[in-house]
Amino acid sequence: MSDALSAASLLMAVVAILYGAWYQEINQATALTVPTHDRHAPLGVVEAALFARCLPLAGMAVMVVLVFLPMLVEIVWHALGVARARGLGGYVLYDSVRMAFCLVVVVGAGIAGHLCRMTWVLVRLRGRLKG
Fold first, then answer.
1. Separation CA 109–CA 115 (nearest Å)
2. Could you tell me the pLDDT band of residue 31, with boundaries at 50, 70 and 90?
3. What does pTM read for this prediction?
4. What does each C-alpha distance from 58 to 18, 24, 52, 101, 108 come to in angstroms?
5. Residues 21-41, buried b or exposed e (16+ Cβ, 10 A)?
6. What's the whole-number average pLDDT of the chain?
């Protein structure tokens, strides 16, 4: 289990570092308005943020979450079974490594969800700038 936690943490750390480094550029691109004339410059900014930053990062974050999702489901299912069988007495079986793993995957899912939302916003903005 600690190997899985290390792998998930390392991969999510890479995503989080890139997310932090690129967030301002992605956020600025989503805030652009659609001008009535000369849409070339804003379109370039949006496409650069979308194709070079947001889309690859969202894809990576989603893949990392999907890789570890089955293990997360197994851990949660097991925890629910223990809680159902033992009630509060099941607390003696608490495993902080498993909980940390779940936390890493859930936080990663939050980042992936936000990046997917930002990707969707950029795709829609790109469509408005092209049309």
1. 10
2. very high
3. 0.86
4. 11, 15, 11, 20, 11
5. ebbeebeebbebeeeeeebee
6. 90
